[in-house]
């Protein structure tokens, strides 16, 4: 002990001494005792000195317990530390001194090293300090610039009980919807009484009840609710007061005194009357009632209009929004009356929630067996309906009474939302759609649950009287789009917002409908599945009279096993499968949102409102149950540019290319064609080998082989079935709307990439679906249009990749004969089109060219045909532009060149060179590969490297390619692919140095951010906030009578981030967020130039006439986008997000990590010499 | 030549007994990575009784170089046991080839640990000579007709112990190239009792169809190479396997092996292969769980209990093993009492006597797996699902109550049930027979 205290004293002396001597500038009270470090850290707000001093002192208690050797060195470090930070130079003064104190030689050496390390530490520290200082300054600037809302989110608490709150609220809402006041009230009270649960409730939960009482005009009940709120320690919010005032408004003889009291108490709570109108969501006539109540006191009151004036656009689009003089927004080729009529049609489709259409298989001749089977099925369905109806009623009876404990959530209210018949219909529909190989219980349940929810959401809108108001606004809105009205100088979203503002009375269109927590959806779905499995039966002798007659269930529940996990499956009985297949029924029933819209979509005006008329749609798609994206979007104030671009993409009207559709259907109904990508019917599937397990003639290994064959055949069949069904859906939908004009509403994924909402049939689909879609609007070809069509055709063939535009045009002209032949005799002629990369689109293009050429004046030929312009390796283009990397930029066509550069060939060439070298050196694999390395082998890997493909994945891709080459020796596939992937990665690294640096920087940043316990977030240059939803998995168990479903939830923001995923996904996600930004910018500018524009990610479509304009805009916007300091802004954002929080100096290691992170984030990769403006001249940038 | 050597050595041995301390030191001084020096203390006990049965051996080539000969010329069983015990101690500084009569040095724990940890693949390894000897005793290696396959011997401590105990034929299947060299050196010093194959037993007969490269092989190739032929199921045990299951592969290996057993695929083609495996205690509890233990009674417990006589041979704390390629993050306290259990799984000779055949076994597997996916469901519901209205009849035939839960049914009862079902018309029409236990991640294992 003596020794220890001596040491302590000595150290302190040393420290003080050093400080006096070396750091006059550091004004810091030398800590007299180690305990005082705490108080110091409290005293001094977040400055650098504080951190350092405490770190130094923290080491003290540690050293006391350790051996002397260690103590000494620590002591020195502790002593040196504060000095080192103030100035690196002073450390040098310390060094000789410390050394001189040492006696032992080995110790001396150790200390030299120690000090050396400290010195570098000191340097680093100096930098860190510098950084922190600049950061503090920057934060001040940022907070004033109004970007702050995305940064410091208090999501911790709000999130903690989010799931539970959501469950409670959706339960209450469901009770409210069915007017089951008693249940709702009892439920809320029971939650309120349990202390543990009360803590989890928030004001909005109580508001739901108040609203209900307000409708009933029961003011005293609302008063009670206010008391409950107070009991729970919650404060009433504007919505609570709205309910109270609404109730007063409803009571004709409510005394003004009451209202005055309410208003004055509201004032005490710091809520103004304007707040009521701006921050509440009104349903039905709630708004008018509140206003009525307010008017009794303030007769002249007019609600202050929404101060929605955050019109601060990022510099990228500021001009677009503020200078619109020369903009000409496109109009649709419809009169206002026509559009209104279309709205009505769409509305009725969505109100019905499902659409039943004829399948394209109707065209097939009907056999006797088919009729028999169809009759059987119809008969049985009628029985099943009755049985299910009864079962549903019984289960409701049981549920309504069994719940002895009110605080537990019960499915009963969820089974009352729709008519009993509607539930039954949903169940019957899902039997018809069940694939023969079955469906996992979880997916099936989610599907059923979602259907119920969608239907409920639509009905809720009805109940809230939204439909009438929607019709009113939409009908006026059509004047913006119709051809017979005046020109407007505003965007659809702005028009819609204005209209909503004008018609502010009545319900709000965004009625604040809650989406259900994923678990509720699943529970409800499982309940329905259970009902189906238990009740749906059929006679066992229906197909084979020799079987003994008994009732057997048509669905059975079983388990399949994956590795050591077991997955519950619902499978249809073989008898049912056979009946369904033989009947080939001709009606298909879809959910209404599967169909394209019959009128222009509702523009996105907020995160929760847009796209379909009634069907709820998310602005941003996410995994079921992930809420972080939506929370982030809601916090974000200015998403206008993003929403406008989505609106623009949705505004494009489409039509069916009927001649093409007819050809495709004829092949589809015949025998399909694998070569042309038309899935053949199951009758073409390989027969499942019959094997009798009781046959003893087989040896076990033969049996194992046979079984493998059976399994493979089964798998093949189920694959074929799903492909066939998918095609059947696509074609049937297309056929159903063959004479119509239709629209695809759009939304986006969490990186901002846009997608059309209808899932089966859209322009993002396969070659087949793309071929049957054309623009509804036609435009003359103009002087260059025909040439563009021809070049487009050559692009579709995949030939002439390395030829110039002129070369491609020449080629097209040289094969005009083939083109015309294909157009005239697609199936019986020379079939030139069939060998194209994209045969169906090529055929469509041939037909278009033929018509144009044969028209009297091709320049005046009205063409509806979309011409595509593809980015050449778009991911690498963005990387090259970010890094201003000359070589990279040239190889992906950012630099103007006479012929297109082909990065794939370039890589292939380089790999070939290396291979030849290796082969010479006698490497076996290299020798085997001779003559096999080409563009095709490496293409996919090169393309996906940008998107973060790993060596493992890359090898699989190459392996696939090599297997396709028949001549390649199969024994060497593994070695060769392993070898090649190494070569490709190497070649890419050499060619794209800048890319690699940026990629590495992004990866490393994400890794450190994730390790520090945060999720990686960023904001695109258009202001779209993005968060990566990858977290460590947690399991949630959903119990039901049938089985427990284990949900692996890996998107829960409360869990720690999954570092591997966070880091691997960041570079590709970031690049995707950039390419989507580029697309959005192009879309916005095309719209203001009056162009038709749609996109398939990095492939842009427009009319042949406007290709040149689009190309110009596309290049300009690319330059504009990359002229922004994208990486610097990212760096700033990340620094601000992750490095300005309170630093926990508890552990030195933590602090060290924090420092490294800060330094890394601040160190933006350096850029090269590439002159971005050159992109504008580059022909092959997008071509 | 042999006799002379023995004669020469005898005095040496005697000498060593007398001067053990001196020898001990010598052994330490003479440390090589692959040392055959024996810590004297170890040798002493054995030698006491082994010296007298000294001279009864036929002339055999003793030099390591000549033990390269093919495996067919093998020591006859009767002699090897005795001779193995005639161990000798290498003299200080004397470097010579080892003969088969030498008592193999099991090494010092520290040294073994060091070697084990230098492995490149992650697995548990035996380093402690005492443990090795204990395992050896349980394996009864003196049974001459039985081949012992040792999986991933690593530093070869158990291998030597087995050989010392007189095992006639040990095949070391080493998956880690790193250990291969030393093992092969040992093989070279012996005259055929040990064969070393670069092969990972636990990755045998893989899923994919691609070309297999060592250490991945097919059982067919391995057994053909070793010259082990198929035997009838009712024959004696032809092969004993001893190994340690890595924690991450325990369950999947046990499943894979039991599937193979019922369908007589993979190694079970060659007869009743006996497994002697170290598994974690937690897995052991599940393996041995009895009906009514709803938490642990699983499909694979039923199947193993149905197919094998299971015996717990030994329990050893996990710390006794060494992880090759040790990882820093060890999972914290899965089970308070973290032991590894050496379990003998000896297939029953009468398994296929009562109507069960390798052909219909897949349906039995399916049935058991479906039944025990949940333990708290009524068996009758399951049966009715396969063949409506037949459950109650079937249950009464077996004499089980109607409301019995699947988790209360004994393995033998499942077998009995299956045999009844297999005879009945109704069940063979059921979808159960059309389903194939397919596991995408273990194709070919049914």
UniProtKB/TrEMBL annotation, chain A:
<dbReference type="GO" id="GO:0003899">
    <property type="term" value="F:DNA-directed RNA polymerase activity"/>
</dbReference>
<feature type="domain" description="DNA-directed RNA polymerase N-terminal">
    <location>
        <begin position="344"/>
        <end position="651"/>
    </location>
</feature>
<keyword id="KW-0804">Transcription</keyword>
<comment type="similarity">
    <text>Belongs to the phage and mitochondrial RNA polymerase family.</text>
</comment>
<keyword id="KW-0809">Transit peptide</keyword>
<feature type="repeat" description="PPR">
    <location>
        <begin position="202"/>
        <end position="236"/>
    </location>
</feature>
<dbReference type="InterPro" id="IPR002885">
    <property type="entry name" value="PPR_rpt"/>
</dbReference>
<keyword id="KW-0808">Transferase</keyword>
<dbReference type="GO" id="GO:0006390">
    <property type="term" value="P:mitochondrial transcription"/>
</dbReference>
<feature type="compositionally biased region" description="Basic residues">
    <location>
        <begin position="10"/>
        <end position="20"/>
    </location>
</feature>
<dbReference type="Pfam" id="PF00940">
    <property type="entry name" value="RNA_pol"/>
</dbReference>
<feature type="compositionally biased region" description="Low complexity">
    <location>
        <begin position="47"/>
        <end position="65"/>
    </location>
</feature>
<dbReference type="InterPro" id="IPR029262">
    <property type="entry name" value="RPOL_N"/>
</dbReference>
<dbReference type="InterPro" id="IPR046950">
    <property type="entry name" value="DNA-dir_Rpol_C_phage-type"/>
</dbReference>
<keyword id="KW-0496">Mitochondrion</keyword>
<dbReference type="InterPro" id="IPR002092">
    <property type="entry name" value="DNA-dir_Rpol_phage-type"/>
</dbReference>
<comment type="function">
    <text>DNA-dependent RNA polymerase catalyzes the transcription of DNA into RNA using the four ribonucleoside triphosphates as substrates.</text>
</comment>
<dbReference type="GO" id="GO:0001018">
    <property type="term" value="F:mitochondrial promoter sequence-specific DNA binding"/>
</dbReference>
<dbReference type="GO" id="GO:0034245">
    <property type="term" value="C:mitochondrial DNA-directed RNA polymerase complex"/>
</dbReference>
<protein>
    <recommendedName>
        <fullName>DNA-directed RNA polymerase</fullName>
        <ecNumber>2.7.7.6</ecNumber>
    </recommendedName>
</protein>
<dbReference type="Pfam" id="PF14700">
    <property type="entry name" value="RPOL_N"/>
</dbReference>
<feature type="region of interest" description="Disordered">
    <location>
        <begin position="1"/>
        <end position="68"/>
    </location>
</feature>
Automatic annotation (TrEMBL), chain B:
<feature type="binding site">
    <location>
        <position position="200"/>
    </location>
    <ligand>
        <name>S-adenosyl-L-methionine</name>
    </ligand>
</feature>
<keyword id="KW-0698">rRNA processing</keyword>
<keyword id="KW-0805">Transcription regulation</keyword>
<keyword id="KW-0496">Mitochondrion</keyword>
<dbReference type="Pfam" id="PF00398">
    <property type="entry name" value="RrnaAD"/>
</dbReference>
<protein>
    <recommendedName>
        <fullName>rRNA adenine N(6)-methyltransferase</fullName>
        <ecNumber>2.1.1.-</ecNumber>
    </recommendedName>
</protein>
<dbReference type="GO" id="GO:0003723">
    <property type="term" value="F:RNA binding"/>
</dbReference>
<feature type="domain" description="Ribosomal RNA adenine methylase transferase N-terminal">
    <location>
        <begin position="130"/>
        <end position="326"/>
    </location>
</feature>
<dbReference type="GO" id="GO:0034246">
    <property type="term" value="F:mitochondrial transcription factor activity"/>
</dbReference>
<dbReference type="GO" id="GO:0006391">
    <property type="term" value="P:transcription initiation at mitochondrial promoter"/>
</dbReference>
<feature type="binding site">
    <location>
        <position position="126"/>
    </location>
    <ligand>
        <name>S-adenosyl-L-methionine</name>
    </ligand>
</feature>
<keyword id="KW-0808">Transferase</keyword>
<keyword id="KW-0949">S-adenosyl-L-methionine</keyword>
<keyword id="KW-0804">Transcription</keyword>
<dbReference type="InterPro" id="IPR020598">
    <property type="entry name" value="rRNA_Ade_methylase_Trfase_N"/>
</dbReference>
<feature type="compositionally biased region" description="Polar residues">
    <location>
        <begin position="63"/>
        <end position="82"/>
    </location>
</feature>
<dbReference type="GO" id="GO:0000179">
    <property type="term" value="F:rRNA (adenine-N6,N6-)-dimethyltransferase activity"/>
</dbReference>
<dbReference type="GO" id="GO:0005759">
    <property type="term" value="C:mitochondrial matrix"/>
</dbReference>
<feature type="binding site">
    <location>
        <position position="124"/>
    </location>
    <ligand>
        <name>S-adenosyl-L-methionine</name>
    </ligand>
</feature>
<feature type="region of interest" description="Disordered">
    <location>
        <begin position="55"/>
        <end position="82"/>
    </location>
</feature>
<comment type="similarity">
    <text>Belongs to the class I-like SAM-binding methyltransferase superfamily. rRNA adenine N(6)-methyltransferase family.</text>
</comment>
<feature type="binding site">
    <location>
        <position position="174"/>
    </location>
    <ligand>
        <name>S-adenosyl-L-methionine</name>
    </ligand>
</feature>
């Amino acid at each position: 002990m003596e020794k220890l205290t001596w040491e302590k004293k000595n150290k302190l002396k040393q420290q003080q001494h050093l400080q006096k001597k070396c750091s006059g500038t550091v004004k810091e009270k030398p800590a007299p005792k180690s305990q005082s470090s705490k108080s110091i850290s409290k005293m001094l707000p977040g400055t650098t000195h504080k951190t350092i001093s405490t770190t130094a002192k923290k080491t003290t208690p540690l050293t006391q317990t350790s051996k002397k050797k260690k103590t000494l060195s620590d002591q020195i470090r502790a002593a040196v530390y504060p000095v080192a930070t103030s100035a690196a130079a002073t450390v040098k003064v310390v060094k000789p001194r410390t050394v001189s104190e040492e006696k032992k030689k080995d110790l001396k050496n150790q200390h030299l090293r120690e000090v050396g390390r400290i010195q570098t530490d000191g340097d680093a520290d100096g930098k860190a300090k510098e950084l922190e200082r600049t950061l503090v300054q920057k934060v001040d600037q940022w907070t004033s610039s109004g970007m702050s809302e995305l940064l410091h989110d208090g999501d911790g608490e709000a999130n903690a009980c989010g799931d539970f709150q959501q469950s409670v609220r959706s339960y209450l809402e469901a009770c409210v919807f069915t007017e089951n006041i008693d249940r709702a009230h009892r439920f809320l009270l029971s939650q309120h009484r349990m202390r543990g649960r009360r803590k989890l409730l928030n004001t909005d939960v109580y508001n739901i009840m108040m609203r209900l009482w307000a409708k009933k005009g029961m003011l005293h009940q609302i008063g009670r609710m206010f008391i409950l709120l107070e009991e729970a320690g919650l404060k009433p919010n504007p919505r609570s007061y709205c309910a109270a005032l609404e109730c007063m408004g409803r009571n004709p003889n409510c005394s003004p005194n009451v209202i005055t009291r309410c208003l004055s108490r509201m004032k005490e709570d710091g809520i103004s009357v304007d707040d009521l109108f701006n921050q509440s969501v009104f349903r039905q006539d709630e708004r008018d009632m509140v206003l009525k109540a307010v008017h009794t006191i303030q007769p002249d009151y007019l609600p202050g209009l929404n101060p929605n004036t955050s019109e601060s656009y990022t510099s990228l689009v500021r001009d677009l929004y503020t200078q619109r003089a020369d903009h000409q927004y496109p109009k649709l080729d419809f009169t206002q009356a026509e559009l209104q009529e279309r709205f009505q049609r769409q509305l009725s489709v969505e109100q019905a929630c499902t659409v039943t259409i004829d399948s394209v298989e109707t065209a097939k001749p009907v056999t006797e067996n088919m009729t028999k089977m169809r009759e059987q099925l119809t008969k049985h369905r009628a029985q099943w309906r009755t049985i299910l109806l009864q079962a549903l009623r019984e289960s409701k009876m049981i549920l309504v009474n069994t719940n002895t404990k009110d605080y537990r959530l019960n499915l009963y209210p969820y089974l009352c939302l729709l008519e009993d018949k509607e539930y039954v219909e949903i169940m019957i529909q899902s039997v018809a759609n069940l694939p023969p190989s079955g469906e996992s219980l979880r997916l099936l349940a989610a599907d059923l649950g979602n259907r119920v929810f969608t239907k409920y959401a639509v009905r809720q809108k009805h109940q809230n009287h939204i439909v009438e108001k929607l019709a009113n606004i939409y009908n006026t809105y059509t004047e913006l789009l119709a051809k017979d009205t005046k020109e407007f100088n505003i965007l659809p979203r702005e028009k819609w917002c204005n209209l909503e503002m004008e018609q502010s009375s009545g319900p709000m269109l965004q009625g604040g409908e809650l989406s259900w927590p994923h678990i509720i959806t699943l529970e409800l779905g499982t309940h329905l599945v259970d009902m189906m499995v238990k009740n749906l039966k059929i006679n066992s002798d229906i197909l084979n009279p020799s079987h003994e007659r008994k009732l057997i269930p048509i669905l059975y529940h079983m388990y399949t096993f994956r590795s050591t996990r077991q997955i519950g499956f619902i499978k249809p009985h073989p008898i049912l499968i056979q009946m369904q297949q033989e009947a080939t029924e001709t009606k298909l029933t879809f959910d209404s949102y599967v169909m394209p819209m019959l009128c222009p979509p509702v523009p996105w005006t907020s995160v929760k409102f847009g796209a379909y008329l009634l069907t709820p749609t998310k602005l941003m798609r996410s995994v079921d149950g992930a809420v972080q994206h939506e929370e982030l979007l809601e916090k974000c104030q200015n998403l206008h540019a993003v929403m406008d671009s989505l609106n623009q993409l949705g505004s494009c009207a489409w039509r069916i290319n009927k001649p093409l559709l007819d050809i495709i259907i004829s092949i589809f109904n015949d025998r399909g064609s694998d070569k042309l990508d038309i899935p053949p019917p199951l009758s073409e599937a390989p027969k499942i080998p019959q094997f009798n397990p009781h046959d003893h003639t087989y040896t076990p290994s033969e049996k194992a082989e046979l079984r493998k064959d059976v399994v493979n055949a089964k798998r093949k069949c189920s694959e074929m079935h799903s492909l066939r069904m998918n095609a059947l859906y696509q074609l049937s939908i297309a056929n159903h709307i063959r004479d119509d004009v239709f629209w695809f509403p759009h939304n986006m994924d969490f990186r901002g990439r846009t997608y059309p909402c209808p899932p089966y049939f859209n322009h993002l689909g396969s070659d087949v679906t793309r071929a049957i879609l054309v623009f509804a609007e036609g435009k003359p070809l103009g002087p260059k249009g025909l040439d563009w069509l021809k070049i487009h055709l050559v692009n579709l063939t995949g030939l002439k990749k390395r030829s110039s535009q002129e070369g491609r045009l020449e080629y097209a002209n040289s094969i005009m004969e083939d083109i015309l032949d294909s157009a005239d005799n697609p199936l019986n002629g020379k079939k030139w089109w069939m060998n194209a990369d994209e045969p169906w689109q090529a055929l469509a293009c041939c037909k278009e060219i033929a018509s144009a050429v044969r028209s009297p004046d091709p320049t005046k030929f009205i063409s509806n045909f979309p011409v595509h312009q593809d980015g050449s390796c778009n991911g690498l283009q963005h990387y090259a532009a970010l890094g201003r990397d000359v070589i990279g930029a040239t190889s992906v066509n950012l630099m103007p060149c006479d012929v297109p550069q082909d990065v794939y060939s370039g890589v292939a060439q380089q790999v070939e060179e290396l291979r030849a070298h290796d082969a010479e050196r006698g490497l076996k694999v290299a020798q085997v590969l001779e003559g096999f390395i080409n563009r095709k082998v490496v293409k996919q890997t090169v393309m996906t490297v940008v998107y973060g493909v790993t060596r493992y994945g890359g090898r699989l891709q190459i392996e696939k390619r090599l297997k396709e080459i028949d001549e390649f020796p199969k024994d060497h596939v593994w070695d060769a692919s392993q070898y090649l992937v190494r070569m490709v990665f190497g070649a890419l690294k050499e060619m794209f140095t800048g890319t690699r640096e940026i990629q590495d920087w992004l990866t490393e940043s994400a890794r450190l951010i994730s390790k520090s316990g945060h999720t990686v977030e960023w904001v695109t240059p258009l202001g779209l906030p993005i968060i990566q939803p990858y977290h460590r998995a947690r399991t949630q168990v959903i119990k039901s009578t049938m089985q427990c479903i284990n949900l692996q939830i890996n998107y829960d923001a409360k869990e720690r981030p999954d570092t591997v995923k966070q880091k691997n996904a960041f570079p590709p996600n970031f690049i995707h967020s950039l390419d989507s930004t580029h697309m959005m910018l192009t879309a916005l500018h095309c719209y203001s130039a009056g162009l038709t524009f749609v996109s398939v990610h990095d492939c842009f479509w427009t009319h042949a006439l406007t290709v040149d304009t689009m190309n110009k805009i596309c290049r300009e916007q690319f330059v504009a986008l990359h002229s922004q300091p994208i990486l610097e802004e990212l760096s700033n954002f990340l620094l601000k997000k992750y490095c300005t929080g309170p630093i926990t100096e508890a552990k030195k290691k933590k602090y060290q990590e924090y420092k490294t992170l800060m330094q890394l984030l601040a160190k933006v990769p350096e850029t090269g010499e590439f002159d971005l403006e050159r992109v504008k001249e580059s022909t092959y940038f997008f071509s | 030549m042999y006799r002379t050597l023995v004669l020469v050595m005898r005095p040496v041995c005697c000498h060593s007994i007398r001067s053990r301390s001196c020898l001990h030191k010598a052994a330490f001084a003479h440390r090589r990575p692959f040392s055959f020096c024996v810590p004297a203390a170890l040798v002493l006990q054995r030698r006491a009784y082994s010296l007298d049965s000294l001279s009864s051996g036929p002339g055999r080539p003793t030099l390591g170089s000549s033990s390269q000969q093919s495996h067919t010329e093998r020591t006859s069983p009767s002699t090897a046991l005795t001779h193995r015990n005639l161990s000798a101690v290498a003299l200080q500084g004397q470097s010579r080839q080892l003969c088969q009569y030498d008592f193999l040095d099991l090494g010092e724990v520290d040294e073994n640990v060091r070697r084990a940890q230098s492995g490149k693949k992650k697995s548990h390894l035996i380093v402690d000579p005492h443990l090795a000897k204990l395992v050896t005793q349980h394996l009864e290696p003196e049974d001459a007709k039985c081949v012992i396959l040792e999986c991933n011997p690593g530093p070869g401590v158990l291998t030597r112990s087995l050989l010392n105990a007189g095992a006639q034929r040990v095949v070391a299947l080493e998956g880690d190239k790193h250990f291969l060299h030393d093992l092969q050196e040992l093989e070279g010093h012996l005259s055929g009792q040990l064969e070393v194959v670069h092969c990972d037993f636990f990755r045998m007969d893989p899923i994919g169809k691609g070309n297999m490269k060592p250490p991945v092989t097919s059982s067919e190739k391995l057994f053909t190479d070793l010259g082990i032929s198929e035997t009838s199921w009712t024959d004696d045990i032809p092969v004993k396997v001893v190994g340690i299951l890595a924690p991450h592969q325990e369950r999947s290996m046990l499943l894979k092996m039991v599937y193979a057993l019922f369908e007589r695929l993979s190694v079970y083609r060659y007869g009743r292969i006996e497994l002697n495996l170290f598994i974690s205690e937690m897995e052991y509890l599940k393996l041995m769980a009895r009906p009514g233990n709803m938490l642990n009674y699983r499909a694979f417990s039923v199947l193993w209990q149905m197919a094998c006589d299971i015996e717990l041979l030994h329990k050893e704390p996990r710390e006794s093993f060494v992880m090759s390629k040790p990882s820093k993050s060890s999972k914290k306290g899965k089970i308070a009492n973290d032991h590894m259990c050496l379990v003998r799984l000896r297939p029953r000779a009468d398994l296929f006597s009562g109507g069960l055949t390798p052909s219909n076994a897949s349906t039995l597997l399916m049935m058991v797996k479906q039944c025990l996916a949940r333990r708290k469901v009524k068996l009758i519901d399951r049966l009715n699902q396969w063949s409506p209205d037949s459950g109650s009849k079937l249950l009464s035939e077996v004499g089980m109550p109607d409301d019995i839960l699947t988790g209360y049914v004994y393995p033998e009862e499942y077998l009995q049930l299956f045999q009844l079902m297999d005879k009945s018309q109704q069940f063979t029409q059921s979808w159960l027979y059309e389903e194939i236990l397919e596991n995408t991640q273990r194709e070919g294992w049914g």
